[in-house]
Design a protein that fits this description.
By secondary structure, the chain is of the alpha+beta class. It contains ten helices and seven strands. It has a five-stranded mixed barrel with strand order 2-4-5-6-7. It starts with a strand and ends with a helix. The relative contact order is 0.13.
Amino acid sequence: MEELTGRVLVEEESVLEVSCVGVGFLLVPGQTLPMTLFHPVFQTAIRRSVLGNRVFGVVGGVSGAEEVSGRGVSRGSLGTLAEIYEWQEEEEQREGRNFSLKAKGRDRFNVLEVRRQADGNLLAKIRIRPEIILSNPLLSVFSQSISRFLQPIKPIPAIQPTEVQESKEESGPDVESPSQNLEENIVCDTSVIRSASHLRRYYSRVSSWPEWVYDAYDPVLLVGQIHQKLHQDLGRLSHSQKHFPSDPTELSFWLAQNLTLDDSVRRNILRMDSPIMRLKYQIQLLQNAVT
């Protein structure tokens, strides 16, 4: 396959027109989408995407009869923007041209308008859904003259101290330690969580809400609850198989992709624009799951 380099960045709330296809499943951001296309209409649409901005829209939950006709793609439909990073076009003697590609789910969108061109290509005007990342609500409690004397709540490192020590012993003294990149990830180290909880308890005393309200919507604590639940349910797996994302946004989409869910439940998750709301909803799903 021919590899396409670079990355396509789309601004939130932006409106653009892309080729759109309807499929029987829901594409989740971050999910890999391998496709082999035989229908000439789909091949034409994807070929234009490869030669253009390399993205196309995927609307899920469409039945087999509606995939070719395009009736499953309508105004208000929820979809995911897919970015092509590998593609290949071959010509077979019996079946004609065979178009294969690999794409990665990126941004979620809603369909505003749909129109079909003369060659059958389905074009949709879409609006990119925002990804709402909330800041720490306690930062607005203090004035700058007071808060500059207080200790800030720093991100929790993602690698446990025991793992760092073992990696140093294996790599030797001359190899760069992975602990240098700890601040890039959000982690669930219980000792640091206790420290952050102590600071949050102190900050909440001068706010109008009690501490448990901030704990219920703290993304670090929500990630820790999900990690603990997954480690309990998947205790038989090896350590290498129990590597879960630590970023709240990546973890929420990872759960939507890997959990066994109905399309209606997965669609509800994709309609949520905040990773905190997705994680709280997924915690309820994990707690109600029958093992």
